[in-house]
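User: Structure please.
Assistant: Input sequence and predicted structure:
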Amino acid sequence: MDREMESRRVMEGVKAAHDGMQAAPRKKFKKPQTKAFDYEELAEGVRSGSRLHLGKAITLLESSNPDHKQHGQELLNCLLPFTGNSIRIGITGVPGAGKSTFIETFGEMLTNLGHRVAVLAIDPSSSITGGSILGDKTRMESLARNPKAFIRPSPTAGTLGGVHKKTRETMLLCEAAGYDVILVETVGVGQSETLVRGMVDLFLLLVLTGAGDELQGMKKGILELADAIVVHKADSHNTDLAKKTVREYKQILHFLQQATEGWKTQALPASSLERTGISEIWAMVKDFEDTVKKSGYWKIRRQNQTKDWFRSMITDELLSRFFDDQARREKVKMLEQKVLQDDLTVSQAISNLFE
C-alpha cells in the first residue's frame, strides 16, 4: 500500500512567476543619444593637416545621406577661406601609359622639395558593388606611406569624364588641409575628359614612345585640351625613339589651338623607372603657373570653372527634385511605354510630361 501511495505522489516543480513569485524587473535599455555634429571640430582637424580628419571630411561629402550632405556643406563653407592656394594638375593618358607610376615618382620628388601632395585617384566603379576596381592606393605604396602625401581613391560612380561628382569639393578640402599640389588621375582617355579640364589649372597627357599608330587612334580633341604632353617610359634603351616621338608631337601641336591662352603646349620625355625628366616637368609646371598668372588668365579660368560648376549643380539638383516626385516617376514610366509601343513620339511624350 505504501508503495502504491509513493508511486502516486507528485513531486513539487520549480516555482516560477506564474506560481506567485515576483518577476525580475526588466532592464531598461536607453538608446544612446546621437552626438550633435560639430563641423568646427572636424574643420579644425582638417586645418591641422590630419589625414584622418581629412578622410572623414571627404567621406562626409561623398555620402548620399541627406543629413551627411548638409553637414558636409556646412563643413565646406567653414573651410572655404582656406582654399584656392594650390596648383591643380589633371593627369590622363592612354591605357598602359603608366599614370600611377608617374604620379608616385612625381609626388615623391615634390615631397622631397617640401611640397604637400594630394592625389585624387579616380577608379572605374564596379557595376556590382559600386566601389573602386583598380585600387590606386595599392599601386602607390611608397607615396601612400609618405607623411607629406594624401591619396584618396574614389569610384567614378557612373560619372562621365572619369571623375567623381564630388572631386571638385574634395580638392577644396585638400587645399584647406595645406596640400599645395593637387594631382587628379583620371580613368582612360577620351572626349569626356573635358570634365577634368574644367576643374584643373594644368592638364597633362601621358603617352607612350613610338607615336605612329597611337597618334592615328588618338582623338584630336584630347590633344587640344592638353597643356603638356609627357612621352612616358623614355628609358635609356628607348631614348632615341622617345626623342623622335617628342618631335612628332611638337609638329602636331603647331597645327592645334592652344589649350590655355598665352601658353604654348609643351612635349617632354620622361622615365619614372629611371627618374629622368621628372624635375624638368615640374620646372615646366612652375613656368606655366608664372606665365598664366602674369597674363591674368589663371584667375579668369578658375572663375569660369566655378561658374560652370554652379550651373552643372543646378542641372543635377533639378534632375534630383524632378525624379523625387512619385507621381512624376510613374508618369515617366507610362509615357516611356507609349513611346516604346510607337503610340507617341519622344517629343510628344516630353510635351505631355511637362503639361
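The longest strand covers residues 87-93.
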